[in-house]
């Protein structure tokens, strides 16, 4: 029987992006861990954002595309509860080894994580219509 960590690595798939000898530890973590998790959890993140926007009186759905981009960024950067919820969705897919690596540099990795998520959500803005 597989361990939980083995199962997590299997369902997430391969790394996304190039990792070389000269890659920084943060860049390696981003491409080996964060990008595959964000891809795997993409549909859930979209649904979580759609629910968030609906609960915020649905203003998001009336905005122009440019203002929607700004709204996504602001929601993730300024709403700490929402951001922490999204972080939990991602961190929950870490292996124990990855978590131990994450806690060594969580501040910088959180910035990378949220920036990647913001860009991913913005690039799929057409999927948010209710």
UniProtKB/TrEMBL annotation:
Protein name as catalogued: Glyoxalase
């Amino acid at each position: 029987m597989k361990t939980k960590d083995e199962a997590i690595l299997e369902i997430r798939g391969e790394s996304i992006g190039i990792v070389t000898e000269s890659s920084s530890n943060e860049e390696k973590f981003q491409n080996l861990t964060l990008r595959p998790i964000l891809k795997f959890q993409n549909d859930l993140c979209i649904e979580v954002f759609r629910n968030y926007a609906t609960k915020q009186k649905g203003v998001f759905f009336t905005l122009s595309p440019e203002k929607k981009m700004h709204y996504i960024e602001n929601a993730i950067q300024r709403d700490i509860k929402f951001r922490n919820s999204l972080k939990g969705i991602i961190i929950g897919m870490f292996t124990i080894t990855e978590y131990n690596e994450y806690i060594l540099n969580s501040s910088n990795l959180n910035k990378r994580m949220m920036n990647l998520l913001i860009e991913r959500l913005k690039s799929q803005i057409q999927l948010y219509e209710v």
